[in-house]
Write a structure and sequence with these properties.
Blueprint lengths: L7 E7 L11 E6 L2 E6 L3 H8 L8 E4 L2 E4 L2 H14 L4 E4 L5 H14 L2 E4 L6 H10 L6 H7 L2 E5 L3 H4 L3 H4 L17 E6 L4 H4 L3 E4 L5 H12 L9 E2 L2 E2 H13 L2 E6 L1 H4 L5 H14 L4 E6 L6 H12 L5 E2 L6 E2 L6 H6 L6 E4 L3 H4 L2 H7 L4 E4 L12 E3 L10 E4 L5 E4 L10 H29 L1
Parallel strand pairs: 6-7, 6-17, 8-9, 8-13, 9-10, 13-14, 17-18, 18-19
Antiparallel strand pairs: 1-2, 2-3, 4-5, 4-19, 7-15, 11-12, 15-16, 20-21
Helix pairs in contact: 2-17, 3-13, 3-17, 4-12, 9-10, 9-12
Amino acid sequence: MSGQEMKTRVEEDVLCSFCGCLCDDLVVEIEGNKVKNVRHACRLGASKLMGHERIRTPMIRKNGKLEEVSYQEAYDRAAQILVNAKRPLLYGWASTVCEAQKKGILLTEMVGGILDSTATVCHGPSILGIEERGLSGATLGQIKNRADLIVFWGCNPAEAHPKHGLRYSTNVCGFFTPEGRKGRKVLVVDVRQTRTAKNADKFIMIATGSDFEVLSALRMFVAGKGEFVPEKVGGVPKEELFEAADMMKAAKFGAFFFGLGITHSRGRSKNVGNALALIAELNAHTKFVVMPMRGHYNVAGIGQVAAWETGFPMSIDFSRGTAYFNPGETAACDVLSREDTDAVMVVASDPASNFPRGIVENLAKVPVIQIDPYENPTTLLAEVVIPSAIAGVECEGTAYRMDGLALRMKKLVNSPHPSDEGVLNGIIESVKKLRGTEAEAKAPNEASA
């Protein structure tokens, strides 16, 4: 290897393409064409940027075994599956860039399929709750600089978003919060004592599935109607809830972060709506904002792109010739549970690891196309596997942080693989060729008729 190839360079202000925090303060050392060291990242983010075992070449399943093929062969086979399907499902999109997501929506519309994102199995209920109630929002920068009370409800950022507290919320020193953690109070509400809860000023452990009732009790205290609250709500004594409500009303600037503990316990979107109502009512007393703790680094992005392209944030059915949205009917798990799809394309996701067993069994009954840099359990089900470049490492692109701020990710090293956008462009071109062939085949018959 030449000296030029081994030359080390340093990239600063690099975005981490792991979780919804999209931390943009990373320093990456690159030697030749390989990431050698990552500074300022959490262990999860550093692991992604450093890279690990990849899918090396496109593959098509032949006689029950995946065999290596060219990219064009993989594109053609994927296009054939999608065009021949009556109602294909194109699912995932949370760990790829907005440019690829836009191409995915175009492809779904071309083949008359359903487009759905991983939000439907995480913060989909948050989106529905926000549509009903509205959102008292803020950027993470505002929270960092102003918030003197941080509430974490049904989430555990210490393990799921390790730099959240250090960079945006509990421990960071802001313009109006120069003391950092010493100048803030932290309230955690959860069904168990998490690592986040152990560092809180006040921890309330509620009974599983009682989020709606506890939120309602807090709203009663905020409204000054605590005398109507029972002695215990969700397993929590009335006095403890009164203290929590008083703590929130006394804040100069409060920030309420919520996770899957609210969105996937009994009540789902209604829990979210109740939490948003609590925040709205707190704003009659002080300044309070609320934010869902989004998981994958661009799961917020697919909601944005889908909304501006179709008018809907997820679960969009194009099989009628126009965009149709009805969660509970057009979401990925609903469609698969009814066996209402005959082909699935998975982009930047791993449903075989995350969907319920019965739904994964139905997924295994139909042709699956996988586009992903890494092998995962979905690969075992796939008929077509297409490796792609890692966004934010091997290709650039746009992503939305959990607070809705759009950020641009850098390309750090070269890749032998095309980007997700490039793969989707290849499949789109193959679909056009197939459709053109179909049109040519029909034309002579129409002329003779």
